[in-house]
Design a protein that fits this description.
By secondary structure, the protein is an all-alpha fold. Helices cover 72% and strands 0% of the residues. It is built from 13 helices and no strands. The chain is globular.
Length: 308
């Protein structure tokens, strides 16, 4: 401790903060390494952003005109052939949102409770087994998840290929994303908050629901939206379990249900301009839906943040 701090302590006052050590002038080798690091960093940033911007601009230029037509948001493709101009994407938009909502309704509680168990309660062999299974699910290809549900739903139980079977396959893909993102957010909650709650006599389960989860809420919402964005763009489960239909269907157990990925896959097979326009329009619509979901997540996370 310096002489100034000792004198301040004797006088009863708080010690003055220590001044940061003075750094000498930047040497030539340090400046060179600093500039090289900046060049590498900006180059990597450009390599990551250029393809993204190229995809967004291309999709907007080729599919933007479809979204400006009112029938795109009000009509389905019922009675419209690949050679005929017209029709809309409301059937695919509605199917995408319904399947994403059902998938999230199943995956979010399971994923969050699994993460809470791993962080707050998980010890020993069972916790290691659960964590290992989540790691396996994280790397599983979407076609494997689709074939697993097909073998279980169609081959074993004898049910038809319906939209709910697609949701079951998407659940397998969404749960690990939610578990890992929620787990990381829960680990960031300071232990002092838990200890303060325990010191007041609050049970552990109530501390988790009243203190831990609200503190990590914004990060959990971000993880949930990442999971939803992933399943909204998956195609393999839709091709295996839920083929495309051009009409509006709202019953998950009745028959096939159209989605934006299957609409894109259906129209891309025909090298006709009306079909290609619908491909770009559906792709741009899917991008906008995911973009709006991310904006909603940021809005919810900002206004639900725990005030310090």
């Amino acid at each position: 401790m310096s002489t100034i701090e000792l004198e301040a302590g004797r006088r009863g006052g708080s010690p003055a903060p220590a001044a940061p050590p003075a750094l000498g002038p930047k040497s030539g080798s340090r400046a060179l390494r600093d500039n090289l690091a900046r060049i590498v960093m900006w180059s990597a940033f450009a390599l990551g952003v250029i393809p993204l911007v190229w995809i967004l601009v291309s999709t907007a230029l080729k599919g933007g005109s479809m979204l400006l037509e009112s029938q795109w948001w009000t009509n389905s493709q019922s009675g419209i052939t690949d050679r005929r101009v017209g029709g809309g994407a409301v059937h695919a938009i509605q199917g995408t949102l319904i399947q994403a909502a059902v998938t999230a309704a199943i995956s979010v509680p399971v994923g969050i409770m699994t993460a809470v168990y791993l962080v707050e309660y998980g010890r020993g062999r069972l916790a290691r087994t659960v964590s290992f299974m989540v790691d396996i699910l994280t790397g599983i290809p979407s076609i494997v998840a689709a074939l697993f549900v097909y073998a279980l739903w169609v081959t074993t139980f004898g049910f038809q290929r319906v939209a709910f079977a697609v949701c079951l396959a998407l659940v397998l893909l969404m749960i690990p994303t939610i578990v890992r993102s929620t787990e990381e957010m829960l680990k960031l909650v300071p232990n002092e908050l838990r200890e303060a709650s325990y010191a007041l006599g609050v049970p552990k389960w109530k501390t988790i629901f009243k203190v831990v989860l609200p503190t990590a809420f914004s990060g959990i919402v971000t993880g949930v939206l990442l999971g939803i964005a992933r399943v909204m763009g998956e195609t393999a489960p839709l091709l295996v379990l839920g083929p495309y239909t051009p009409v509006i269907v709202t019953d998950l157990f009745a028959t096939n249900m159209a989605t934006l990925p299957t609409m894109i896959n259906q129209s891309r097979s025909e090298n006709l301009q009306p079909a290609l326009d619908r491909v770009w329009g559906a792709a741009l619509t899917l991008i906008l839906l995911i973009f709006l979901l991310n904006l909603l997540g940021r809005f919810v996370g900002r206004f639900s943040k725990v005030k310090s």
